[in-house]
Amino acid sequence: MTTYREAIRTALRRLLLEDSRVFLMGEDVGRYGGAYAVSKGLLKEFGEERIRDTPLCESTFLGAGIGAALGGMRPIVEVMTVNFSMLALDQVVNNAAVMRHMSGGQFEVPIAVRMATGAGKQIAAQHSHSLENWYAYIPGIKVLAPATAQDAHDMLLAAVEDPDPVFIFEHQMLYGIEGPFDPNATPSSPWKAAVLHPGSDVSLIAYGGSVHKALAAAEELEKEGISAEVIDLRSLRPLDRSAIITSVSRTHRAVVIDEAWKTGSLASEVSATLAEEAFYELDAPIARVCTREVPIPYAKHLEDAALPQVPAIVEAARRSVGSG
Amino acid sequence: MTVDISRDHALDLMLQMLRIRRLEEKSAELYAKQKIRGFLHLYIGEEAVGVGAMRGLRDDDNVVATYREHGHALVRGIPAGEIMAEMYGKANGCSGGRGGSMHLFSVERRFYGGHAIVGGGLPIAVGLALADKMKGESRVTACFFGDGATDEGEFHESLNLAALWKLPVLFLCENNRYAMGTAFKRHVSDDDIVNNPPAYGVHSETVDGMDVVAVERVVHNAAESVRETGEPRFVELRTYRFRAHSMYDAELYRSKAEVEEWKKLDPIEQLKDRALAAGLITGADIEAIEREVAREIEEAVEFAEQGAWESIGDLARHTYARDLS
Amino acid sequence: MAEFIMPSLGADMTAGTLGKWLVAVGDRVAHGDIIAEVETDKGTIEVEVFTSGVIEALLVEEGEKVPVGTPLAEIGEAGTESGTVSASVSGSAPESVSGSAPESVSGPASAPVSVSAGIMTLGGGGDLNGPMATPAVRRRAHELDVSLHALSGSGEHGRITQEDVERAAFANRVRAPSGDRVRISPYAKRLARQRQIDLTDVRGTGPGGAIGARDLEAVPAKPPADSPKERMQRAIAAAMTRANDEIPHYYVEHTIDMGTALEWLRAKNQSSSVNERLVSGVLLLRAVARALRKHPQLNATWQGSGVVRGDGFHVGLAVSLRGGGLVAPALRDADQGSLLELMARMTDLVSRARAGALRSSELTSPTITLTSLGERGVESVTPIIFPPQVAIVGFGAILTRPWVVNDRIVARPVVRVTLGADHRVSNGHQGARFLGTLDRLLQEPEKL
Fold it and tell me: Which residue does chain C place closest to B29, by CA atoms?
């Protein structure tokens, strides 16, 4: 058993050791050891050339990452959290995503960007965003959301190797969780969803920080005789639509769990996909369990009320099956 | 302008500036005829900057430019036909027809675009320089941008980061005194842009951007200094565009008189006058150059006219390395 | 001669107004000269001419607004001049330069009260289990298919009341398309169709009485759909049973000397190309049809109370199908046309019967049926009438048998023909006469 953060660190070390083109840059990744302690110890091991503390200039250091990737390096840019990434959105949308296309295929940007995301620690409105859908919206980049320690490790390796820009969202509540981890296991493709808990009555579809809540809900539902299938989306762009459709074709009911605000969320995208491609399999309306449409409050009871929680997932599943 | 250069050198500078001038004029004509669409930003009046700077750099150096980059691209060595075809949107354009006037790219010429977001190219230049430094290359990354870009956060962030990490970036500010329609004094708090970079520890100087010989000399020296020290430098090139910001601009923000004043400093005329007076070149030389340039432009237009349109079936190409579906 | 056109000066410019001419007819102009001012949305822009020459005509007046690409002036050739001469001009209708207007997002305004019962988010108040509402109110909401989360309650502390729910349900009804549509999930609808379940008797237990897959389980499943072959088998069985029960059959048999007919056929075929050769079956078919002309009471159908004579002589050909089925589609007006045509039609009908490509009219219009078991090699057949027809003709194989001709025994090709007929409509005498006519017709094959 290893923690999520340790698994990422393992991947970072391996990449830095095996490929001289790889380097890590971001705020406080070096001396501080990483805002979430992911890169602790790496500066000492690899030095300042490979572990670069940047000034507070998200746009320029992410842009520099793009330039370095263009110039033949394999940079891993750590944006401390998705909340700060908005300063760099222009570089993402207007450079990383379109360079290959605008140049007629001459240039590629093999950059990997890691960001902490999500809410739950009472750090209030400006520090609690879930913006995976903003990134998953953009053609030209890829987006991953590891929910397990193994995935956190494997996905980083895949992201660095990928010739396209890859954005990895690490839910901040997951860094300390422990999970099974084998650094030498043959990794499964990061671009596919995974069935973490097979079931037959309803599909609970989630990603990132919501996956463990979906699993807890499935356990609850089992006690009531409802067999819930839990799907971890894993890849948000490209979205594994085939897995979603296959699962719901079997269960005929879907509950999508997403920590983002419901409007325009990835849950909406999953719902639309099901309505388009699995319409004749649906035995109940698609349910979405998302964050209430409010800025995230500081007070704990309010934050808890705003975010999707296990009872709400269970309730939605029950209703879907018809016993709610 | 001092003209202590050889005849061949003078002819080359003359040729390059005229190539740009005639290409831009032809582009304006083709735009009016709707052969070129979207946005078109002409470099007329600023040729000395593009030519002098390119001649001051090495072939192997990296170049990042803005959307007013036809001249830079041309002198850099991207064939006129490919530039024209790109503006037409044809598949034989230098960006495959995907970019248009504002996004000329060439991997062979180390020409990293063609950027339409003001200030958006500076971080890229910093990154390219970072990669070269980490790989031990002796390249300079030349980054062209306008006075407007010095307002953007990226300008300050890039100077800071390049200075802090000692990256071989040559920041070339083409100050044509207007950020689109906003005059210099109305968008810069400190009159002199040259005062900015030293605040970040970056060496800064200014040069008359209408004097191609001076531009070449200054840029060359600055580039070699960057190459030698590995540290960034900043050069402000003072110039002026004789045409509007883009094709659809009524130029309500400046007086005709001002434009006429600057036209007297036409870099092509300046070089011509001085070179003729110094006996370096003759009227016949100029005529020969004009003929050569006219032919080149005509062939370029023909190349573009004959180019094929990319198949719509290929629409999704170049979004990812491999088609995801 | 070149044209000076209204130039495109920007991505979103579609037209411009000729503000002012700076030249007059007869003026000499050079490439690059500013010759007019154009007024656009962004202000007045000076425009240059791209050819050198002499202004021959000004085509647009000051103050006139024209689309981009419209010729504004004509420029004739001057003497020698430098600069490029751009003589080509887009002669076609000026292309609109306008960028497409942003597509307005159309669609029904989002209903303030959500109709979809499935949307579920955490409710207000301190109750993590949902919006504040008593169980009775929740039940009512479920019955009326109102989603509680989208309501703002008018009760104390934002509690949702029965009235809130009823009001919302009414609003939904008013807004939703009315009609006697069954509320059913897409999946259940598909299952119902597959299982051939009649939904009118199915009770839905979902929100608003919606039928779900579970509700279909209560409905006894129909026996699995038959294969087409089984269906056909049953149809034939039903028809034959009915014929047996309802139709009083009488039978008349006869043996016809086919010597002359076959001899004629052989001679005719020898002088015909391969695809024009006739088979004996065609002669039999034609003869039956022609014979019926003289005995129309055998060419009819029994419709409940009485006989309806056929509107033509449409002979149903019994065709056996691969896999054991049997159809008897009609060759309409078998008494008409050349034998070659009849042959072609017969071949076509048989092949389409075997391919399952018959037209419904062919299956419903026979006025009599002909069944020939000649290929099977049997001597005769005693066939059963296909109701509602009133007769059926069956042939055995044409076999060589000892025959008496002119008091001598010779080997002759003969065929046994059996007429089965409905005794309510005809009798043995009539039947016998029919067979006599048939015989006579086959002795004069050239007249068929």
Answer: C50
Annotated catalytic residue A281: no
Q: Give the domain ranges of chain C.
A: 2-76, 230-447
Establish if A289 touches chain C: CB-CB under 8 angstroms. yes
Secondary-structure class of domain A2-179 per CATH: alpha beta
Q: Is A282 part of the contact surface with chain C (CB cutoff 8 Å)?
A: yes
Parent domain of B216:
7-306
Q: Is residue B319 part of a domain?
A: no
CA-to-CA distance for C434 and C428, rounded, in angstroms? 10
User: Domain A194-321 falls in which CATH fold?
Assistant: Rossmann fold (3.40.50)
Please say if the pLDDT value at position A116 is more than 80.
yes
Among the partner residues C117, C186, C214, nearest to A280 by beta-carbon distance: C186
Active site residue A58: yes
Instruction: Name the residue facing A94 among B98, B120, B160 (closest C-beta).
Output: B120
How does A281-297 read in b/e, with b if 16+ C-beta sit within 10 Å?
A: bbbbbbbbbbbbeeebb
Chain C contact set for A250 (CB, 8 A): none
Cβ pairs bridging A and B (under 8 Å) = 142
Tell me, yes or no, whether B245 lies in a domain. yes
The torsion angles phi and psi of A292, rounded to 5 degrees, stand at -60, 150
| Residue numbers in chain B where pLDDT is lower than 70 | 1-3, 325
Asked if C118 lies within 8 A of A311 by C-beta distance, the reply is: no
Tokens of C182: 């069954």
Catalytic residue among A6, A58, A78, A303: A58
User: Helices marked H in C131-206 — which ranges?
Assistant: 135-144, 162-175, 186-195
- With CA atoms as reference, report the closest residue to C383 among C247, C281, C290: C247
Given the residues A127, A129, A171, A252, the one annotated as active site? A127
Check if CATH label 2.40.50.100 holds for domain C2-76: yes
ipTM of this complex > 0.85? yes
- What is the residue-wise DSSP string for B73-127? HHHHT--HHHHHHHHHT-TTSTTTTSS-TT---BTTTTB-----STTTTHHHHHH
Across the interface, of C121, C126, C185, the residue whose CB is closest to A282 is C185
In the CATH scheme, what is the homologous superfamily, with its name and number, of domain C230-447? Answer: Chloramphenicol acetyltransferase-like domain (3.30.559.10)
In a domain, B215, yes or no: yes
At C39-62, the pLDDT tens digits run 877 677 888 898 899 999 999 999
Global pTM? 0.69
Are A292 and C118 an interchain contact pair (Cβ–Cβ within 8 Å)? Answer: no
